Amino acid sequence: MQPDHAHDTSTGPQTRRACLLTSSALLGSLLLPQQAHAGGQLEEPMIDSVRTALSSAIASQAPPVPEFKDTESRLAYLRWLGAMSDRLKKKKPEWQIRKEFLQTVWYESKRAALDTTLVLGLIQVESNFRKFAVSPVGARGYMQVMPFWTRVIGDGDASKLFHMQTNLRFGCVILRHYLDREKGDLFMGLGRYNGSRGKAPYPNAVLGASTNWEFKG
After folding, report:
1. Which are the contacts of 115, defined by CB distance < 8 A and separation ≥ 6?
2. Global pTM?
3. 3-state secondary structure of 154
4. Could you tell me the domains of the chain?
5. Quick one: average pLDDT of 105-120?
6. Looking at the chain, which terminus has fewer C-beta neighbours within 10 angstroms, N or C?
């Protein structure tokens, strides 16, 4: 695990944005297909109210079935599903598995008030869409969740992190928690997710990978 670095307050927003959009060579090195890169989330002191809120967010067992307020919203989702399915076909050749995965990513992203494009980019960097990926420090699954989270806000059963919906729910809730801690600062929130807060390589990689999942339809 990498230490949690303090935020350099001398770095302005423009400089940080520049850092996020550079280092394409480094991005390539972080996206090697056979390696799980992250899982550097740090176990930190957590006040009871935050732990309770996170536990509640994880505990809900609602099925990942999208609901729509109108026909146009449903059609927009179906267009997104079709476009993402085509892009993901090489990673997940079976249609039903691909559909269930994308449906769950969509559901859990929206539930955590996250951009699905960002979540897919993060999954690409973390596990390259491998359900049973394990990092050198023991992080598990699609979103490379550290096992300690199941003890802190779950039931303590780390084996459940290989279950698709459980892993995506933990990952999205944890990312939302880190972004809230950083008051919406994407650079710092992503760094915290990786255990490299204040350093550019990981945010660069995730944002770069996210461009593969943009949808204009």
Report:
1. 109, 210
2. 0.79
3. coil
4. 64-213 (1.10.530.10)
5. 96
6. C
